[in-house]
Amino acid sequence: MSNAFSSSHEQYEGVGTGTTCQAPDLSLEGSRQVLADFAHSSELLGKLHLTPQRIDLPVTFPLVEGPRFGYGDRLRWVLHSNATDWGLVIGRFYSYAPHNHCWRWCYLIWLDPGSPSSAWIRADIAWEDDLELLDKEAAQ
Q1: Residue 90 is part of which domain span?
Q2: Which one of 32, 49, 65, 103 has the lowest number of neighbouring Cβ atoms within 10 Å?
C-alpha cells in the first residue's frame, strides 16, 4: 500500500468516490500561502460594515430570551487570564449546554488576526455567558 501523500503535489483517488483530488501542498511555500490567504480574508472581513440586524425567530421557535449579541458585534471571551481571544460574530445557534443543564445561545466567532488563537484557528464557538462586548465603554 503506497502513501497517498508522499509528494505535496501528488494526486490521489478519493476513497470510495472514484474521484481524483489534488493532495494538499504541505511544503513551506504552501504554508506561507495559507497564512497569506488567512491574512487577506481576515483583512477583508474586518473591513465589512455589518450592521447588527434584528432577525426574528420563527413563530414555532420556543418562547426564550433572545440573543444578547448580533451579527457583526465585536466580542471577546470573558477574561480569566491576561490572554483572551476576540473576534466578530458571524453566526449563532440555540443549543443544549450540558454544563448548565439547559438550552443556551452559542455564537460562531471569526477570530481577529491579532487574537492569540488566530495562529492555528480562524473561527471558534462560545456560549453566550462566556462572551462580552470587546469594548464595553464604546458600546454604551
Answers
A1: 74-139
A2: 49
